[in-house]
Design a protein that fits this description.
By secondary structure, this protein is of the alpha/beta class. It is built from five helices and six strands. It has a single domain, classed as Rossmann fold (3-Layer(aba) Sandwich). 36% of the residues lie in helices and 15% in strands. Strands 1, 2, 3, 4, 5 and 6 form a six-stranded parallel β-sheet that branches. It is globular. It starts with a strand and ends with a helix. The model has no long low-confidence stretch (mean pLDDT 97). The protein binds flavin mononucleotide. Flavin mononucleotide (FMN) binds next to helix 1. One of its GO terms (molecular function) is FMN binding.
Length: 183
């Protein structure tokens, strides 16, 4: 199973990027998680959407070829970061590579609410006509990691909190079943 991962933080020691890397290693027998380079995407420009820069072409192709997409987002001012919205805007135009794509959303923050507001925005965006992703249904499947600084190991950067890892295992299983049922 080939899954593209979008991470909404560009910070070197990002908890959300560390979560992506933890998942890459922990679930490598079950799926191949490829982290997309959304940093190199230029700002969306509608004048360029029909013949976009190479980085955009490659990003859209990766999403198009994937069995599903995992989106891991911090919360910036109660929403998703601009770099992630920018990637979704490119993906929403011309060939609309997200239509019907199974998506799992996760997020980590040092705050208490675990990116819930950002993820609510994200779900609205993923429902837009140019995107129309198939989002893992929310009932119990939201992965909201609050107090991230207490759950990741400072040295290795890995997610080490047992309770969170157990919860994540069950949600990843749900996503794998969801992807199989959609493809
Ligand atoms: C511009 C900005 C806005 C932020 N807004 C929120 C917010 O609305 N809610 C929240 O829980 N955390 C907020 N934070 C704190 C981030 O959740 C925290 O910095 C987190 O570590 C970012 O994710 P990262 O570690 O993957 O970079 C904000 C941080 C920044 C830099």
């Amino acid at each position: 199973m080939n899954i593209v991962v979008l991470v909404g933080s560009l910070r070197k020691e990002s908890y959300n990027m560390q979560l992506a890397k933890t998942m890459q290693e922990r679930y490598k027998e079950k799926m191949n998680l490829e982290i997309a380079d959304i940093r190199s995407l230029p700002h969306f420009d509608q004048d360029e959407e029909n013949n976009p820069p190479q980085s955009v072409k490659e990003f859209k192709e990766a999403v198009s070829n994937a069995d599903g997409v995992v989106i891991i987002t911090p919360e910036y001012n109660w929403s998703i970061p601009g770099v992630l919205k920018n990637a979704l805007d490119w993906a929403s135009r011309v060939d609309k590579v997200f239509i019907g794509k199974p998506v799992m959303a996760l997020g980590a923050t040092m705050g208490m609410l675990g990116t819930v507001r950002a993820q609510m925005h994200l779900r609205e965006i993923l429902d837009a006509p140019g995107i129309q992703a198939r989002i893992l249904p929310p009932g119990g499947n939201e992965v909201l990691i609050g107090f991230a600084h207490q759950k990741f190991d400072e040295q290795s950067g890995q997610l080490v909190d047992e309770g969170t890892l157990n919860f994540l295992d069950s949600k990843v299983e749900a996503f794998i079943d969801f992807v199989k049922s959609q493809n």
